[in-house]
Amino acid sequence: MSRPVYLVGSVPMADAGEVFRTIGGKLGSHLRWLPDGETGERLDWITWLEPIFRDDPALMPSGKLFRVHDGADPHVRYTLRPGKKPSDVTFANLFYADKAIQSYAALREAKRDGAVPAHVKLQVDLVPAHSVLWLYVEDDLQAALDPIYNAAVKREIDKIAAAIPASDVAIQLDVASAVFARLQRGQASSYGATKSDMQARFADILIDLAGHVPAGIDLLFHFCYGDANHKHVVEPTDMGDMVDLANELTRRVPRPIQLIHMPVPRDRSDDAYFEPLRRLALSAKTLLVLGLVHHTDGLDGTRRRMATAQRYRRDFGIGTECGFGRRRVETIPELIDIHAKAAEV
Q1: Which residues, including other chains, have CB under 8 Å from residue 272's CB and lie 6 or more apart?
Q2: DSSP symbols for 278-314
Q3: Using CA atoms, how far apart are residues 218 and 273, in angstroms rounded to an integer?
Q4: What is the spatial distance between Cα 153 and Cα 298, in angstroms, rounded to a whole number?
Q5: Half-sphere exposure (CA, 13 Å, Cβ side) for 182?
Q6: In the Cβ-directed half-sphere of 134, how many Cα atoms lie within 13 Å?
Q7: Rounded CA gap, 16 and 188, in Å?
Q8: For 16-51+86-343, CATH number?
Q9: Which residues lie below 8 Å from residue 298, measured CB to CB, with a gap of 6+?
Q10: pLDDT digits over 20-54, tens only?
């Protein structure tokens, strides 16, 4: 018997073909979905999207920099040019679908060569507006641009659905620190004056996007507290906020959810962190994945976190907290090996 293995997204390799052939050969029997590694310019999650804001004629640099935490790299924030309105911002192409179509061709080739099992689907990671705008747009503009950006995300979903057979693809929505850091801090933002306001607003946004994914395409959610320079934006107190959001999505998303992933920090093998899983109420069709695999304490640390988790939830898949993109390339083989060994029950 073995547990499913899940990869969040980025893998620091040369291209999608190398990711498919390397990971498929090592973990193929444990995988249901396989990302293309978000290689090249996409390795650092959403930083490759900055030109979308830089090149939009309705936007200009605000002159301010934003960091998700004190040790993170700074990012230029944008605001409206004089005389422009939020509706003048177009976000015509986010390029996710273009990349996915190229990667699907590489996956089909890897399958033909026997490098990836036939059942494995291409995993395409999309990032909702709240995370992207948090990085690149001034606070007072985020609420107005959110529906405009998410309309562009929906167009990417439509293009993926039109180009790749539903049985061969999964769409993942990344729910990152722009959500969970705000919820834990309970600080007023453009998404709500209180924590409960923000919980409701973020849930509404995610439910709307999830409902746009065709029913025949697998739907995945990746929850995250950030990985900027290998540091969370905030340290999660426990799994409570993630459980609450997962339960709300389970109740209200109008289609099946195939996976929800929740991170587990390296130093959290204590009961207090996992205890909220007692009230997790996922559908039987939804795989819970716990991101408890860490390279730094290896197989022993991974098994220690798994042992605690099993006191609160017997059935779960395993993965890391976040993508591999910020990792040193030489650590990847050992990290994949930890996944393979930890998956064996």
Answers
A1: 238
A2: GG----TTPEEEEE---TTTHHHHHHHHHHHHTTT-S
A3: 29
A4: 37
A5: 24
A6: 22
A7: 40
A8: 3.20.20.210
A9: 334, 338
A10: 999 998 898 899 999 999 999 998 888 899 999 99
The stretches of 167-263 forming alpha helices (DSSP H) are 177-185, 195-212, 240-252
The span from the CA of 80 to the CA of 88, in Å, is 9
CB atoms within 10 A of CB 313: 15
Let me know: does 209 contact 249? Beta carbons within 8 Å. no
Beta carbons of 20 and 107 less than 8 angstroms apart: yes
Location of structure tokens 């509404």: 204
Q: Which residues does 91 contact at the CB level (< 8 Å), separation at least 6?
A: 52, 56, 148, 149, 151, 152
Residue type, 304: R
In terms of C-beta density within 10 A (0-12 exposed, 13-18 middle, 19 or more buried), how is residue 266 classed? middle
Axis crossing angle, helix 96-112 with helix 139-163, rounded to the nearest 10 = 40
**Residues 266-315: pLDDT tens digits?**
999 999 999 999 999 999 999 999 999 999 999 999 999 999 999 999 99
Distance CA 28, CA 33 (A): 9
Other C-beta atoms lying within 10 Å of the C-beta of residue 231: 15
- CB 189, CB 248: distance < 8 Å: no
d(CA 69, CA 178) in angstroms, rounded, equals 12
Ramachandran area for residue 267 (φ above 0: left; ψ -120 to 50: alpha; else beta): alpha
Q: pTM (2 decimals)?
A: 0.95
